[in-house]
TrEMBL record:
Residues 301-362 form the Multidrug resistance protein MdtA-like C-terminal permuted SH3 domain. Its main location: other. Residues 101-170 form the Multidrug resistance protein MdtA-like alpha-helical hairpin domain. Residues 1-26 form the signal peptide. Belongs to the membrane fusion protein (MFP) (TC 8.A.1) family. This is Efflux RND transporter periplasmic adaptor subunit. It is found in: Cell envelope. Residues 207-296 form the Multidrug resistance protein MdtA-like beta-barrel domain. Keywords: Signal. It comes from Acetobacter tropicalis. One of its GO terms (molecular function) is transmembrane transporter activity. One of its GO terms (biological process) is response to antibiotic. InterPro entries: MdtA-like_b-barrel, MdtA-like_BSH, MdtA-like_C, MdtA-like_HH, RND_pump_MFP. Residues 60-203 form the Multidrug resistance protein MdtA-like barrel-sandwich hybrid domain.
Length: 376
């Protein structure tokens, strides 16, 4: 083969390779397309809840203390049982108080006898004074004696009332209905009026308070939900409280809110929410720790799996949406709480949006995508 023939063959070969090279360069310059799965966003009614710690507290509690001094004669209840309002619990030795009452009654009888004589003398001297048969001094003394006798009677009646009260206080009654504790003082012990140590404690267990420790933000959300219910004349369940005992067992009856504290601790940002629960079986006891679920009501929102929601450098949440142009679109969203393994989102997502659920760590906004599914 001559050199001229060889050159012509090489040129022909290069011409054949040129279309192939052009195709490869075009493929290299084309944007990459990422295959992804998506989920369809559907707006739904979502129960908004918050999980907070709580502690049970007595609805009523009375420390039983003696109001008179004396020897404790009898205990008239069984420890740990239920007692009623007005039920006698203790008897303090009553004889000194019975004697004081008898003495006060005797003083009253003596005073009444003195008053009869004083009134008669006053009447007699009044008549004699009218005919100038006695001096003015004698008349004044008679009037004064009658007034003194009346005052002595009033004093004696007051002494009777005081003695009767002290005698009544020798019988110690329960001021409330509830469950009584063990006795802290035994028969034969000397007790004193209003002593520091109580004889026993009566606690009303049904109903019972549960005090919840919540944030100021939670209180604001709850107030807003309650105000919306009142304005719209609807019931969304706002304000309902459910608790789980420290054993992990759910408590059967829901509670209701009784009190929203008017101040938030500036140091912690926390406040107290007082709730009331029916407690007929005494499953909740004062001082018991519980886990509470506070219901803020229901509202329209989107439930999006937590692993689908990303955060930018400012920790703001966002999702990637499959755009109609076949590209990934960034949407910033507003999260108000979690619900299981999902976030409750109220803003940033529209009904029917296709949210990308995979390859989120490598996919960037504006990247071309190909959907592997088309959910309803």
């Amino acid at each position: 083969m001559t050199s001229r023939t060889f050159s012509n063959a090489c040129i022909a070969g290069l011409l054949l390779l040129l279309p192939s090279c052009g195709k490869k360069n075009a493929d290299a310059n084309a944007p990459a397309v990422t295959d992804v799965h998506v989920m369809r966003a559907h707006e739904q009614s979502v129960d908004l809840t918050g999980y907070v710690p709580g502690r049970a507290a007595a609805y009523r509690q009375a420390e039983i203390r003696p109001q008179v001094s004396g020897v404790l004669e009898k205990r008239l209840f069984v420890e740990g049982t239920d007692v009623k309002t007005g039920q006698q619990l203790y008897q303090i030795y009553p004889v000194p108080y019975e004697a004081a009452l008898a003495q006060a009654k005797a003083d009253l009888a003596h005073g009444e006898a003195e008053r009869v004589a004083a009134d008669a003398r006053k009447a007699r001297f009044t008549h004699l004074s009218g005919i100038n048969a006695v001096s003015h001094q004698d008349y004044d003394d008679a009037v004064s004696s009658a007034a003194q006798a009346a005052a002595d009677i009033a004093s004696a009646k007051a002494e009777i009332m005081s003695a009767q009260v002290n005698l009544d206080y020798s019988r110690v009654y329960s001021p409330i209905s509830g469950r009584i504790s063990r006795t802290l003082v035994t028969e034969g012990a000397l007790v004193t009026a209003n002593q520091t140590t109580p004889l026993a404690t009566v606690t009303q267990l049904d109903p019972i308070y549960v005090d919840l420790t919540v944030t100021g933000e939670a209180v604001s959300r709850l107030r807003e939900s309650l105000m919306n219910e009142k304005r719209d004349h609807t019931s969304t369940g706002a304000g309902q409280v459910d608790v789980v005992l420290d054993t992990g067992r759910p408590y059967t009856s829901p509670g209701r809110i009784d009190l929203l504290e008017v101040m938030v601790d500036p140091g912690t940002g926390m406040t107290t929410l007082r709730t009331t629960f029916q407690n007929p079986d005494a499953m909740l006891l004062p001082g018991m720790f519980v886990h509470a679920t506070l219901h803020y009501g229901r509202r329209k929102a989107f439930l999006v799996p937590q692993n689908v929601v990303l955060r930018d450098l400012h920790a703001d949440p966002y999702v990637l949406i499959a755009g109609s142009d076949g590209k990934a679109v960034l949407r910033k969203v507003k999260i108000i709480q979690d619900s299981g393994n999902s976030w409750v989102i109220t803003d940033g997502v529209s009904d029917g949006d296709r949210i990308i659920t995979e390859k989120l760590q490598t996919l960037q906004p504006g990247d071309s995508i190909h959907l592997l599914n088309e959910p309803a």
